[in-house]
Fold:
Amino acid sequence: MNTFQAGTWMKREGYRSFEPALINRAWRFDDPQLLEALSRADRQVGRLDMFSEYVPNLDLFVRMHVTKEATQSSKIEDTRTEIEEAILPEEEVALERRDDWQEVNNYIRAMQQAVADLGQLPFCNRLLCQAHATLMSGVRGEKKTPGEFRRSQNWIGGSNPGNARFVPPAHENVPTLMGDLELFAHNTDLHLPPLLKVALMHYQFETIHPFLDGNGRIGRLMIPLYLLSEGILKRPVLYLSDYLERNRAEYYERLSAVRHQNALTDWLRFFLDGVSETARHGVDTFDRILKFQADWEQRLRGWKSQGTSGLALLRHLFTHPAARAADVATAAGVSPPTAYKLIERFVGHGLLREVTGAKRDRLFLFEPYLQLFKTHP
Structure:
């Protein structure tokens, strides 16, 4: 690592672009602190993966993890949509906030689609491009060649490349650089630990900035996708955006320091510390959810005449944490008048909160469940 060179600053007309070095080559890491960070991260990811195997109905919880990831990843791009708003039907979202709501829900669709596509595709540029097309569909970046690598210069910060905070490589080099990244992802001769590999890949992707828009979100989405493709995770339960959003300034500083000072080891330690913290928090979140579920199932069994319908509603709310009276009636198998009585009891116990303020067709949120995903480590 003493000889590592991140790339070259190329003089252009009125600005300099950064041309990163190829990463599909031999690597040797022997920094003791880095190896300790890798060991901690490996242990925590292993715990999270093992824990997820024993969680019944894991799909109930994965959906909310993806929703939280979508809101946090979008926050880094200054899109402000909280979990409560992300799960609302579009018609319940204020007109001035629907663009943000659409971007977050596109992220959810992109992640779900990409995870499903991993059954037919390996981790590859095609997978990332398909996710990018979904991410950009019908939102502010839809005119910026969704699903395709850029064919013009882009930049980060500033009004033009001349006053930008960072200018990525020239567009004609993007196919070669992204091809190299894909080869690196599948190069088994390197014998590089997957967590170090994906840390390098994330840095390289954000440096290449291969799309005209949406690079940050796709670069963060690729982390769990790669770990799934390698079998490090059996299910998509590790998302770093919450950690990166809370440490946003350091995140950008670490990436920048690699390009300007070749400080790759510092970036890798920062990334691995994020993996450790996120995986540990994931285990804690699953544990709190399971205890919350078991506690309320036990209480509801004692509700006499409403016990059976209450349990049916509770289980429905784990997959649909926003519900109207008609949804409650269908989920619990009761009449509309009985559904209203059940809702009133859930509201009285703090399980549901009305959010529309309407007299008719009111919408209720499964508030305590949503709060479990908002608790920081």
User: Anything to note?
Assistant: The longest strand covers residues 7-11.
